[in-house]
Structure formats: C-alpha cells, structure tokens
Amino acid sequence: MSTATTNFTTSNSAPAPSGRPEPTPVEVFRAIHLDFEGTATEEPSLLGIACEGEWHAVVLEPALRTLAGCGVLGQHVSAADLPKVLAAVRRRAETEDRRLFAWSTRELDAITAALEDPDEIAWWTEHLENAIPFARRWARRHGVELPRVRLPRGHRHTRNHLGRYLAAVGYDVPGGAGPGHTAARIRTLRDQLARRGDWSGLTATAKGKWTKLCAHNRSDCLGMAAVLGQVATDLEGEGR
Fold first, then answer.
1. How many whole angstroms separate alpha carbon 227 and alpha carbon 235?
2. Reduced to 3 states, what is the DSSP secondary structure of residue 16?
C-alpha cells in the first residue's frame, strides 16, 4: 500500500459510472458492496465487504491487526494488506460476474492510492460503481423524502449521506452503529493497543468501541445493499 498521505474526504456527489445501466434486483443481491472505515486524512483502517446478505471485514492498518477475530463480531473479521484484499475481490467479481458498488467515490480514491499497477487502477476505475447517482435518480423519480439524520457535533450534513437513504427505505441501524464516531474510535484503539499490547489488555470501553466500529461498518455495507435493492426493485417496477 502506498505510504503517501491522501485526503479521503471526497464529496458524495460524483457522477455516475460511464455506460453502466441501472442495476436489477438480482444484480444488487449478487453484487459486492465495499465500505472503508478510517480517519479523514489517513489511509483506511478497515474494509467491509458485503455480498448476498453476508458481511465480513478486513483490518488493513498494521497497528490494529491484532483486533481481527476479537469481540462480538470478530469471527467475521480478518487482517491483510489492501492490495491482497483487492486482488481477491477482483477475482471473485470477475469469475462470478458480480457488480461492485460503493457509496461515494471515497473507496475508489483509497483504492487507486493503494495500487501502483496502471492496469489494476484502470480496472477498478471502470468497475467500482458509485451507488449515489442511482439512488438520487430513484429518489427524484419517486418523490422520496430524505430525512435528515442526527450527527455528532462538528460533523457536516451532506445531501447524499447514506443515513438519509437508510431512513428513507426504513433500514434499522442498530444502536451505537450510527455515523460520526469512526475516527475517534480508531484513535482510541490505536492508543490502547500501543499502551496495553493486545485485546486482552484493552479496557471494556475500548472493546466496546471496536464492537461498535465493526457494527457501524456492517450496517453501512448491508444498508447500502438494502438501499440499492429498493432502488432496483422500484425502477424495475416502472419499466426503467
């Protein structure tokens, strides 16, 4: 992974992928949905992957890798370098003919920063689709009201915040899994692991932050799939 510092605070309003049709319900169900977690200005710490209703995550940040396998959701979390994970995801997408979605362009920015091979970068640029344009067209066509979501103080509301679409389709976000706390949780875990060694030395509060970080990513991944599923179902019903 590149050691260059990249700003991953990309806008949630990127254009739709060129030439890609609106997804069908089957394509959404079979698709691979990706979501990174990290601070605003550093390389991502964790990558969540959802497909066919199943979720797992990969710890990318070396300082946090001992957390893989730990906690309530630990059985769904492994650790690896990002390029290795991306190679596995690409292989599955190609061999099983699955589309790839992320919410916004942040994921693509992080991926292209991590890769060096121009062919790999070109492949991801072509195949990783921003889900927002599809969701926006659906909301506009169907007159869907997008409720504002409560964010912690200091966090900026955006028009295309995933939480607004989750609320619009009635997706239930578990308590503690909402937005706005990721960076603080990651920093706490870094500090505790540096001082206390591993999972066994963490305080109960820090262990709870890890569980909530995983729950948040799981909710975002599966929630994005739920939003796109509703989008695809409604668009198919109107004959596109």
1. 12
2. coil
With 0-12 CB in 10 A as exposed, 13-18 as middle and 19+ as buried, what is 200?
Answer: exposed
| Within-domain flag for 232 | yes
pLDDT in tens, 9-54: 333 433 444 467 899 999 999 999 999 999 988 999 999 999 999 9
Residue 234, C-beta contacts closer than 8 angstroms, at least 6 positions apart: 138, 142
The verdict on residue 5 lying in a domain is no
Question: What total number of domains does the chain contain?
Answer: 1
> Where do we find the tokens 């254009």?
15
pLDDT, tens only, 104-144: 999 999 999 999 999 999 999 999 999 999 999 999 999 99
Is 225 contained in some domain?
yes
Instruction: Tell whether pTM > 0.90.
Output: no
CATH assignment of the domain containing 57? 3.30.420
